[in-house]
């Protein structure tokens, strides 16, 4: 099976081109591919399927030619992946399967529009974030309050007083399974000056990653709410780089770099 490897601010993905939807990618295979010692190593897998060949998207998604079949490193599926979408778009452009400056991609969370910026960065229209209430994450015995926000996938974004660089995110943080029955992506952030935050994330299905696009948008929403704003441009610094989030009245945008770093033949099989 042919593969490519790419990343967006070091949130890294294995890309599996499967235009006709012929490959049955089991959870076990995804977990083996993402294993950083016995496999290629990645935070997730992006299977590239023609929307009309996918059985998972609704009729209105057929407006987009391509479906991003996203899987977490443990093989679980997710509705949306912001950095994955930017890397997926880079692949489509490099392969000549889509053309700049703008096109749509189908996901389990609906169609997302992507745009190529003059500097090569890729921007995704992430849709309107939905604040669903408040909840609490527990890290190292410490409780942190935050906002429950949906970007298609679930997030708990917590502003904390302790420096995020000092947190131990080697273990699953605690969360309220009554509020998040299918799990949650947990962002911990420090506001640093005007419209800038430093963020770390523990992703559902992947553990700590060096960046999370949907998490960056959730973090911007939570940071903005502390200032009483709902709109504006936010710089989100993550261990793997810097992302820009724009919040407006109707939607949100995520921008940053996305690169393909390798391609080859995968020897792993079902
Ligand atoms: N890294 C992604 C989010 C991937 C999905 C997430 N782990 C989930 O299960 O919801 C991003 O860049 O948004």
UniProtKB/TrEMBL annotation:
Q: Which UniProt keywords apply?
A: Amino-acid biosynthesis, Cytoplasm, Isomerase, Lysine biosynthesis
Q: Which PROSITE patterns match?
A: DAP_EPIMERASE
Site (Could be important to modulate the pK values of the two catalytic cysteine residues) location in chain? 155, 203
Q: Broadest EC class?
A: isomerase
- Indicate where this protein is primarily found: cytoplasm
Would I find Cytoplasm among this entry's keywords? yes
Domain of life per record: Bacteria
- Biochemical pathway: Amino-acid biosynthesis; L-lysine biosynthesis via DAP pathway; DL-2,6-diaminopimelate from LL-2,6-diaminopimelate: step 1/1
- Active site positions: 81, 81 (proton donor), 212 (proton acceptor)
Provide the assembly information. Homodimer.
- Protein's name according to its UniProt entry: Diaminopimelate epimerase
What species was this sequence derived from? Nonomuraea antimicrobica
Please spell out the taxonomic lineage of the organism that makes this protein.
Bacteria, Bacillati, Actinomycetota, Actinomycetes, Streptosporangiales
Q: Which gene encodes it?
A: dapF
